[in-house]
Amino acid sequence: MTGLWGASALRALSLLLVAGLAVNTAHAQGVRERTRTPGAGETAVSESQAIELTLTVIEASRRPLQTWVRAAGALDESGRVLRGPVSVREAALLRVGQRVRVFSPESKSRMTQARVTGVTTRGSQAQVEVTLPDRPSYDALRYVMEIIVERGSFLAVSNEAIIEEGDRQTVYLQQEQGRYLPREIHTGLKGELYTEVVGGLAEGDRVVTFGSFFIDAEHKLKMPEQVAPDHARLDH
Amino acid sequence: MGLILALSATSSGPGLSAQEVKISDPTSVLLIVNRDSNELAFMDLESRKLVGSVFLGNNVNPHMAMMTHDARYVVTGGSSSNKAYVVELATLKLVKEIPVDLAPEHMSISPDSRYYYQGNPSGDSISVIDMVSLTEIRRIQGFAEPLNVTFLPDGSKAYVANYGAHWVGVIDVTRHELLKKIHIGAAGAISRLDPDRYLGEIKGVSSASISNDGRYLYSADGDLGIVAVIDTREDRVVKTIPVGPDPWRAFMSHDGRYAVTLNNGDETVSVIDTAKNEVVATFEGGPDMVGANFAAGKVFVISSTSGFVYAYDLGSLRPAGRIKIGTNVQIETATTDIAERHLYLGNSTNHTIEIIDAETHDVESVGDVGLYPWGTHIMDSKDNYCH
After folding, report:
1. Which CATH architecture describes the domain B288-387?
2. Are B20 and B12 in contact (CB under 8 A)?
3. Which of A67, A92, A204, B365 has the smallest count of CB within 10 Å of its CB?
4. A100 occurs within a structural domain
């Protein structure tokens, strides 16, 4: 009995030691992470900061872009057809059959699905016609029309990843865990969630989304000499 | 959780080949949650034929599913697998499985489709899933059996109903943090009268249902037999309205005029006029009422174990008949189409979807949709809910 107890105790002690070592190792790794000098131009973010910031990284990849054209429309006498002005530039994006989310300004928690049934352009003025499946169940003088335009698939990153400064747009790329490097990019179409990247990024690049603003601030604070006007030169 | 590294799935969208696209119009399909065949099935609303399904894995038991507002994805929580699942809607490909907390059930999507809040009632937490990186970026703790989540129309705050307590949690959606607990009534006095009933198993708040203007929330509390009206500007209760015993959530009529509670304690239905915040009608209902849908000027109340759907005319505030779905069947929840003409009800005994004509009360049964259809969903339907 004693022997058995002794063996169990020994096993437990070994486990504790191993666990303790593991904790020490993890702690030591954390210290090394903090004390290691970042590479040239890199900004380091500790794990605790990353958690606090909800720091999130995605891969740059081809994604479908949507633009939501918003317009205000009034119902005609049928009670099912809405017409409202849009800009000529927006009208160029609109097609019959596109999906529309309709709601009154006072009632955005209740959406009605509708379709674009007509687009007319005369000179510098354009109008969109949207048809609802039925009369709306709530009365309003004007309705908001959110017309969902599918733009196609593009190499894109999410909008909040991009830091805009004057004419320049910068994203932060993850080099390794906790290390980030700025990269200037050129953008194309801007969608609701994503922005097309036409230069400066390749598919698979790991881009910071949430937390990019913090990393940018940290970068400028700690490396002022490297944040000269050409700190994030486009290298493509 | 550590640093969130999200190697997100690549969505394809309009660049897809015709062969890959299974659903080109997200508004044309009914989404069916098949609990026991562990799949999401999609039925064409016009032809009433299945157009595809997504198997999620063994022993997943999906509970509720929703399409994101931008129609990129369908999301569901596997209550037995403790995972959230993300399916690309156009191709019906399962693109991501995300570990969450215990027994995920109900969820909501932020108005901009950016966040998917998954309630984990057994873990007493909400998982915040970023729909760009497809990762859980936060797990908000401190709830008590969180069931339904409601976002404000502007997406600034989300309200979490706690069925294991008598309060509604307010989440700051920018920081994903619990800001405040809105206590909707005191359980102290009532629990002293019958501790076994009121402290043994709490039946608290199942949902915070939003008014059309987003200004007020209506939250029914099961134990207290009340509906609390919450002002979302001040995040406080401005009125409590006594209804019948054991009310199961407040269902909002599409015109915003009424809030309807299903009082399972005495099998009645209360209709609250939201202009006066008073009960204006009480109807006899059925046992185990789990859902209410609005169409053709009526409210349809689903009595799960009786196999009947009860109809009440909201114009005259009088009963409008009951619809027999079957004998010895269990019926679940329903969604209403955009035109508000048909209800699509899950019949978990017969593995069918029952399509109810809201005008005539005729019922058409669509069979072999999958095992144990537990819930249904139509994009932007005003009656997307679960039980």
Report:
1. 6 Propeller (2.120)
2. yes
3. A204
4. yes
Q: Are residues A31 and A146 both part of a single domain?
A: no
CB contact under 8 A, B132 and A58: yes
Residues A159, A42, single domain; the answer is: yes
Indicate the average pLDDT of chain B: 93
List Cα–Cα distances, A226 to A171, A200, A231, in angstroms: 16, 19, 6
Number of Cβ within 10 Å of residue A101's Cβ equals 20
Q: Read off the DSSP letter of residue A21.
A: H
Would the CB atoms of B14 and A148 count as touching at under 8 Å? no
Q: Which two tokens stand for residue A209?
A: 């989304």
With CA atoms as reference, the chain A residue closest to B210 would be: A109
How many structural domains are present in chain A? 3
B12 confidence band (pLDDT: 50, 70, 90): very low
Distance (Å, rounded) from C-alpha B296 to C-alpha B313? 9
Q: What is the 3-state secondary structure (H, E, C) of A23-35?
A: HHHHHHHHHHHHH
In which region does residue B186 sit, left (phi positive, over 0), alpha (psi from -120 to 50) or beta (all else)?
beta
For chain A, say whether B111 makes contact (Cβ under 8 Å).
yes
Length of chain A: 236
Q: What share of chain A is helix, strand, coil (3-state, %, to 5)?
A: 25, 40, 30
Reported pTM: 0.86
Contact (CB, 8 A) for B350 and B326: yes
